[in-house]
Amino acid sequence: MGYSNFNMRLDDDLRADVYPILEQYGLTPSQAVRMFFNQIARTGKIPLSFDWAEIPMPNNETAQAIRAGRADYQAGRLTGYSADTAAQALADMANHD
């Protein structure tokens, strides 16, 4: 099976709307397009649903905190707790004042 490149242009606003949704599903844009094309090839139909289910999206402050937390985790700056020590860790945080 050979492969070919596929480039497409997106409106900046559409890209900004779509990328966070794909990220919530753990998909890259390439994976999403590949899934879309595979479904068309398998069914011979365009797989579109016009039902709208609102997906809760974090606000900017929360999204920044999530990104910072991921970066800290990837850099090894976070302390991990087992289930056995989680209660003690929470108690330690509560008594930190």
How is this structure best described in words?
- It is a single chain.
- The longest helix has 15 residues, at 29-43.
- The chain has four helices and no strands.
- The chain has one domain: Arc Repressor Mutant (Orthogonal Bundle), CATH 1.10.1220.
- With 97 residues, it is an all-alpha fold.
- The protein has helices spanning 12-24, 29-43, 60-74, 83-94.
What is the CATH topology?
Answer: Arc Repressor Mutant
> Shape from CA axes?
elongated
Strand content: under 5%
Rg, Cα atoms, Å: 20 Å
Low-confidence stretches: none
Count of discrete structural domains: 1
Calculate the mean pLDDT score and round it. 87
Structural class: mainly alpha
Q: What is the strand tally? A: 0
Helix tally?
A: 4
Run of helices and strands: HHHH
**What is the top-level CATH class?**
Mainly Alpha
Q: Which CATH-level-2 architecture?
A: Orthogonal Bundle
Terminal residue distance: 62 Å
What does the largest sheet look like? Answer: none
Key terms for this structure?
4 helices, mainly alpha, 97 residues, elongated, 57% helix, Arc Repressor Mutant, single chain
Short description:
With about 100 residues, the chain is mainly α. Helix content is about 55%, strand content about 0%.
Topology diagram in text:
Blueprint: H1 12-24, H2 29-43, H3 60-74, H4 83-94
